[in-house]
Specification:
Keywords: ATP-binding, Chaperone, Cytoplasm, Nucleotide-binding, Stress response. Belongs to the heat shock protein 90 family. It comes from Verticiella sediminum. It holds the Pfam family HATPase_c_3. With 637 residues, the protein is of the alpha+beta class. The protein is built from 23 helices and 23 strands. The strands form four sheets. A ten-stranded mixed beta sheet has the order 1-2-7-6-5-8-4-3-9-10. Strands 11-12-15-13-14 form a five-stranded mixed beta sheet, with helices on both faces. The longest helix has 24 residues. The structure holds adenosine-5'-triphosphate. The site of adenosine-5'-triphosphate has 18 residues, from helix 2.
Length: 637
């Protein structure tokens, strides 16, 4: 932030560069949704009251003698202003500078890197990022914030003001009451917001779920003046009861959606929700949502996760991550416990038995919700899977208790569909298994193309056996926990010797044994030529079009996993691959006929191309090219 001018009374500061950019984008791309500014201000006012109530648990003096927490919305036609006031926690001078002049949120960099310059696409992204306080500038040419932090004397209030054009001024001021007034001076042409009817309509639509009363002055028709006039008396314009405490049948879908936007700061509707009151050993209410898209900080270790925790309707904390396992970190919503103490801390949450019960119960609810989507709303499940499938896969390792349920929810790409879309469930796979097939086959690789074109798949294609194509980073990790499904072992096509079990007939087996015997001398020569680079050389019948492939020994790490570990900077026990050759292939026959002088080069070439096909980077690619060129030209390397 750059300091541009200072006087004793007021100071002018520059917005952080990102704020300027965000404001500019927002004003242009969210204009068609401009009334949401009110929702955002009311949402902040409600959060500020929640925070005060929480701090007052330990420090009742902050309440300054009591008084009801409430939000007031008013307008002044002559001055062309709208004011949203709360008597919540308030802002200090430092808070105002930090919160109203910068964006200090995880995921910010990711957000800016995804902006395209296309207004519609960017509007969507801004919505996902969360617009908050800055939405005021869509309709206001000037925004003034008067605020006094709870507990601070009246003379130590702060006045923040900006026209949204790059800088703001900040000054000390007097404010008789605790909390914050946000005063918007409307832009030209926005006067239709200066109407009690219009403001009430917006508040009912977007903010009815707010649990505090939202108050406005009553109005009545003045026949003499020929217009609505405001009276001194106020009325509450929302239901003012916490949404999650209401009976399900009294809540409309619209109200559920708006509440989601309030708790999640998402602009978009949620994909699905589950709302339950749990009674018994542990008592709590949960209203949990699955969003439509991933937040910007899904992969950020310091990113926000978790749900809001309330205890007996008192807000305790945002992002209470102990209430759900990490693999459900995309879930948003509220859990309101009747058992936890009001002074519960994050440390206590970690230990608490009540929290464990809540976590187990909430996990089950979310899994049921996802099962319902997968069964009855397949398109929505596909949306869910593409946003959060990779996160859900972490559950295979994290949640042994629910492993079976999680496994059923997984979706993969496979040779059956042949596309990179992850749509095949393990149950689908099992239902298509061949007569005599007793295993679920998969191949892992870094890209879809490498997986789909892997030489290991050739015999499976020939026999019409489906293979799952796994290319997400988390897959190798997942597979170390997900060892079987429905009593069938999951087996890598690139590990161990291939045993297609009951699928090869006797005659085929006999014939293969004869061929294997006949190439024994070649196998021995290859072993000698490639000594040190391979663990073994053997004949395979898994190949059709390729001359050779590499496989990992049964108990060694797969080549793909070795590469991933290496890329992540981890020590991986290095195990050499096994080279398998296709005795029927013309190139293998050509090598068999090679003279002693060129045999070593042919062998190296065969191994290197098998490694390349499998997605490996060669240790010495230049030598490979040189050798290949020499052989192409018919000479020696
Ligand atoms: N009425 C208010 N009283 C006290 N603090 C406020 C008030 N309005 C805003 N703030 C402070 O300013 C911060 C920024 O608000 P803003 O609405 O931009 O973001 P947010 O609410 O944190 O998230 P989002 O942008 O996703 O809505 C808030 O987190 C809060 O600390």
């Amino acid at each position: 932030m750059t300091q541009e001018s200072t006087t004793a009374a007021s100071e002018t500061l520059g917005f952080q560069a990102e704020v300027k950019q965000l404001l500019h984008l927002m004003i242009h791309s969210l204009y068609s949704n401009k009334e949401i500014f009110l929702r955002e201000l009311v949402s902040n006012a409600s959060d500020a009251c929640d925070k005060l109530r929480f701090e007052a648990i330990d420090n009742p003096a902050l309440l300054e003698g009591g008084g009801e927490l409430a939000i007031h919305v008013s307008y002044d036609k002559a001055a062309r202003t709208i004011t949203v006031s709360d008597n919540g926690i308030g802002l200090t001078r430092e808070d105002a500078i930090a919160n109203l002049g910068t964006i200090a949120r995880s995921g910010t960099r990711e957000f800016f890197s995804r902006l395209t310059g296309d207004q519609q696409a960017d509007a969507q992204l801004i919505g996902q990022f969360g617009v908050g306080f800055y939405a005021s500038f869509i309709v206001a040419s000037k925004v003034t914030v008067l605020s006094r932090r709870a507990g601070a004397p009246a003379g130590e209030a702060v006045r923040w003001e900006s026209s949204g054009d790059g800088e703001f001024t900040i000054a000390q001021t007097e404010k008789a009451t605790r909390g914050t007034d946000v005063i918007l001076t409307l832009r030209e042409g926005e006067d239709d917001f200066l109407s009690g009817w219009r403001l009430r309509e917006i508040l009912r639509r977007y903010s009815d779920h707010i649990s505090l009363p939202i108050r406005m002055k009553k109005e009545e028709w003045d026949a003499d003046k020929g217009e609505q006039v405001q009276r001194d008396e106020e009325e509450t314009v929302n239901q003012a009861s916490a949404l999650w405490t209401r009976a399900k049948n009294e809540i409309t879908d619209e109200q559920y959606r708006e509440f989601y936007k309030h708790v999640s700061h998402d602009f978009d509707d949620p994909l699905a929700w589950t709302h339950n009151r749990v009674e018994g050993r542990s008592e709590y209410t949960q209203l949990l949502y699955v969003p439509k898209h991933a937040p910007f900080d899904l992969w950020d270790r310091n990113g926000k996760r978790g749900v809001k925790l309330y205890v007996k309707r008192v807000f305790i904390m945002d992002d209470a991550e102990q209430l759900l396992p990490a693999y459900l970190r995309f879930v948003r919503g509220v859990i309101d416990s009747a058992d936890l103490p009001l002074n519960v801390s994050r440390e206590i949450l970690q230990e608490s038995r009540d929290v464990r019960a809540i976590r187990e119960g909430s996990t089950k609810r979310i899994l049921s919700l996802l099962e319902d989507l997968a069964e009855n709303r397949k398109d929505d499940y596909a949306t869910f899977w593409s946003a959060f499938g990779q996160v859900l896969k972490e559950g295979t390792g994290e949640d042994a208790t629910n492993l079976e349920r999680i496994a059923k929810l997984l979706r993969f790409a496979s040779t059956h569909t042949g596309t990179d879309e992850q749509t095949v469930s393990l149950a689908d796979y099992v239902s298509r298994m061949k007569e005599g097939q007793d295993k679920i086959y998969y191949v892992t690789a870094e890209t879809f193309a490498t997986a789909a074109n892997s030489p290991h798949l050739e015999v499976f294609r020939k026999k019409g056996v489906e293979v799952l194509l796994l290319t997400d980073r988390v897959d190798e990790w997942m597979l170390s926990y997900l060892r079987e499904f429905d009593g069938k072992q999951l087996v890598s096509v690139a590990k161990g010797s291939l045993d297609l079990g009951g699928m090869a007939d006797e005659q085929e087996k006999k014939q293969q044994a004869e061929v294997a015997e006949s190439v024994k001398p070649l196998v021995e020569r290859l072993k000698t030529a490639l000594e040190g680079r391979v663990k073994d050389v053997r004949v395979t019948f898994r190949l059709v079009d390729s001359p050779a492939c590499v496989v990992a020994d049964e108990h060694d790490l797969g080549q793909n996993l070795q590469r991933l570990l290496k890329a992540a900077g981890q020590q991986a026990p290095e195990s050499k691959p096994i080279l398998e050759i296709n005795p029927e292939h013309a190139l293998v026959k050509r090598i068999e006929a090679a003279d002693e002088a060129s045999f070593a080069d042919w062998s190296e070439l065969l191994l290197d191309q098998a490694l390349l096909a499998e997605g490996a980077a060669l240790d010495d690619p230049a030598a490979f090219v040189k050798r290949m060129n020499a052989l192409l030209l018919g000479g020696q390397a």
